[in-house]
Amino acid sequence: xxxxxxxxxxxxxxxxxxxxxxxxxxxxxxxxxxxxxxxxxxxxxxxxxxxxxxxxxxxxxxxxxxxxxxxxxxxxxxxxxxxxxxxxxxxxxxxxxxxxxxxxxxxxxxxxxxxxxxxxxxxxxxxxxxxxxxxxxxxxxxxxxxxxxxxxxxxxxxxxxxxxxxxxxxxxxxx
Amino acid sequence: xxxxxxxxxxxxxxxxxxxxxxxxxxxxxxxxxxxxxxxxxxxxxxxxxxxxxxxxxxxxxxxxxxxxxxxxxxxxxxxxxxxxxxxxxxxxxxxxxxxxxxxxxxxxxxxxxxxxxxxxxxxxxxxxxxxxxxxxxxxxxxxxxxxxxxxxxxxxxxxxxxxxxxxxxxxxxxxxxxxxxxxxxxxxxxxxxxxxxxxxxxxxxxxxxxxxxxxxxxxxxxxxxxxxxxxxxxxx
Lengths: 175, 236
Fold this sequence. Notes:
The complex is a heterodimer of chains A (175) and B (236). Chain A has 175 residues and is an alpha+beta fold. Chain A has two domains: 14-107; 111-173, 2-Layer Sandwich (Gyrase A, domain 2). Chain A is 59% helix and 19% strand. Chain A is rod-shaped and about 155 Å long. The model of chain A has no long low-confidence stretch (mean pLDDT 83). Chain B is built from seven helices and four strands. Chain B is elongated. Classes of the chains: A alpha+beta (175), B alpha+beta (236). Strand 1 (114-120) of chain A pairs antiparallel with strand 3 (159-169) of chain B.
């Protein structure tokens, strides 16, 4: 039986409208496929992530167990690390500390003079020397002044004692 | 509906031309689909990003733990045995008594008489170090006295000579020595599981090597006498 369209011809949709409707329907299909693909890949990726998280947590728990067994080693290592860091600081200071070296050097400068008083400290050293003759003082001072480790030598006092001889009070500093 | 209303006219016109019938359904479907896609993308991506960061965190934690375990299993027992050496070099309590013992021992080895041992106040130094000032007078021949002063610099617990004041008369000398001894409380807690453990560096090993030339205190702990068998149970 033939289809009978009772609607007036002017009420029938235009061709361009039908074409637009077709394009929109195709777009709906594309968007639907995209959505399905997106949801499917999202679910798959979420599953993969959850599996990975569970695996990583399981492995971490196993490692934690073995670390607990090594707790004493960890304590020793931690203590050793703490001590060596601080000891390193003290050793550095000791390396810069020249008190006993200064003492030894000063006493070894001349055998012809007599040392009466010596005070060595990190910044300034004081030396009181006594000499029977003035001729012994000259090489002592010359030797002292040529030493690079004592760039500053101050003569604090110079006196003559009839019983002791010449008495020199010197202040020596590294800077 | 008034025929003069422009909106009503437009609708009526569109209905008459079949526009609404043909276009409304696909447009509504498209809008719904796009909305659902946007919403699912928004929520899905935030969910996945959250889980990705959880995974990253878990993997980072695992890596730290693995590194920690590797360090703990690979660290040599010979290195760990130096813990006691390091603890003696820098004790957790005021080391004045141990330093006094060391000074007396070195003095006796160098034929030096030590007297006037005084202890100053405790202080704080850089690097979370506590200090104690000590002073004493050493008498003896000049040569042994210098050797003594040099030996004092190399004792454990670690000490630093602050000043030496020497009075010389002939070959005899009297030295007033000021020392600074160091100590530092032991750490109260170790790193937590999630924290990275740092292995001993070459610098740390060099420090331990340097300590080996220092004089270790040879304090002997007296042992209690064991009961001896009584050979005469009726005697006194």
